[in-house]
Amino acid sequence: MAQQRQAVGVVGGVDTHRDTHTAAVLDAAGRQLGSAQFPATEAGYGQLLEWMRGLGTVVKVGVEGTGSYGANLTRHLSAAGVTVVEIDRPDRKTRRWQGKSDPVDADAAARAALAGRRTGTPKDRDGQVEALRALRVARRGAVSHRADVVKQMKALIVTAPESVRAELSTLTATRLIGACADIEVPDGQVGDPAVAVRLALRSLARRVQHLSGEITDLDKVISRLVTAIAPKLLAVNGVGADSAGQLLVTAGDNPDRLRSEAAFAMLCGVAPLPASSGRTHRYRLNRGGDRQANAALYRVVLCRLRWDPTTQAYAQRRTAEGKTKKEIIRCLKRYVAREIYTILTAPATPADFPAAA
Fold it and tell me: Whole domain around residue 176: which residue ranges?
């Protein structure tokens, strides 16, 4: 009986959470063979895989959230030689019809994997691009926090006593931070609103300076890492270390998972979507995909529109045809995505890394 079970091909589905993972297994005909819950630990991953293999030969496993709660499970299954596919969460209509629970979601993930519906190859998370992603998370947080602190400083100045407001309100952001960081506050007078505001501004300004130094340090590390991963990407017109880093993170350590340059464009949200009806034939803006990658392509296009004669000539020609600036930028982002995809998926050669040679 055990040998017969081992000969049967089965497909698994996993609904992932922070502390537990719920798994379901289907046979080739779509009949559920069982469902169970396991702890989200290394031991739990082993128990989950052993339980699935006890029901048959595991053909593939659909995992929800391979980039978040299911990241370590995906690593474990891939290391064990199991094919893992990433599953989109069920749409709202499906959930309204069948309800929601962990076993239901695990069963839906298994059925999606079995049918090959709305599935994709998960990113590898054991290479240099994953290291780059972690560094970019820290940098993005520092940049966001620095902007918030500057806003706090300006808000404090608006409501500050006139003696403080008149002195600081006309300064630019850079000069304001420098001036506030050097403020001397007399001891024992923090009960005075003007003194308290100056003390608060000094604290915030020094925080901005610390964050700026942190961002500078991270930029140096990120630039070196991007150069080591994809030196050709930095040679593309308009692509800097920040934009290149984001595009690498979007593609992942295994860009071959992207089926075509059209798929990469859709992933970046720059593939126009048809919105035709009857005699009207048009395309609309794509608001899906990775918005950070979309923003990176936007920055590349803006840079080319300002400095690249070929891009400027293209913009002039399309303007003469009646296109708006927004429409021209959308077209250019699509072209840049095609160029970037070619570089990301090209096989690396020793000539690409002259420094290493």
Answer: 128-229
Please tell me the distance from the alpha carbon of residue 286 to that of residue 334, in angstroms, as a whole number: 11
In terms of Cβ atoms closer than 10 Å to its own Cβ (0-12, 13-18, 19+), residue 59 is middle
Nearest-angstrom CA–CA distance, 24 and 213:
49
> Is 354 inside any structural domain?
no
Q: Which residues are registered as beta bridge partners of 32?
A: 26
Residue 356 has what pLDDT? 43
Q: Do 256 and 188 share a domain, yes or no?
A: no
Of the CA atoms within 13 Å of residue 353, those in its CB half-sphere come to 13
Of 62, 65, 59, 71, residue with least CA distance to 24: 62
Residue recorded with tokens 């030969």 = 57
- Whole-angstrom Cα Rg for the chain: 27
Residues 239 and 195 in one domain: no
d(CA 204, CA 111): 53
Give pLDDT tens digits for 32-73.
999 999 999 999 999 999 999 999 999 999 999 898 999 999
**149 and 108, same structural domain?**
no
